[in-house]
Amino acid sequence: MSSVFEVDTAGPTIAREADVLDIIGDAAWGHAAEWVALPVQRLDPSFFELRSGLLGAVLQKFVNYHLKVAIVGDVSGFVASSSALRDFVYESNRGRQVWFVTDRAELKQRLTGSR
Fold it and tell me: What is the dihedral of CA 69, 64, 31, 6, to 10 degrees?
């Protein structure tokens, strides 16, 4: 199974691209993780507004550092109000770099291939 760095739900809100740099450093160099489990609770609501650019910038940071990321938590409210976000979540979940999962158990299932 892939190594996962689990970001604590308590901590500063990620409201800018630079806010993930410490997380990336801890995951990549401190824990040699392949995946980062990033809780929805840590994300500023603007993260889920595609026009803000925050989601794309943050996810690109992870990709640049060769980390995969799972957004962990309930995003149904955000998805319900944006068809573009709904499509993004759907397409992301079909890939291998970015996943949106409801909880850590679902992430574990996906990582072990037992859907």
Answer: -20
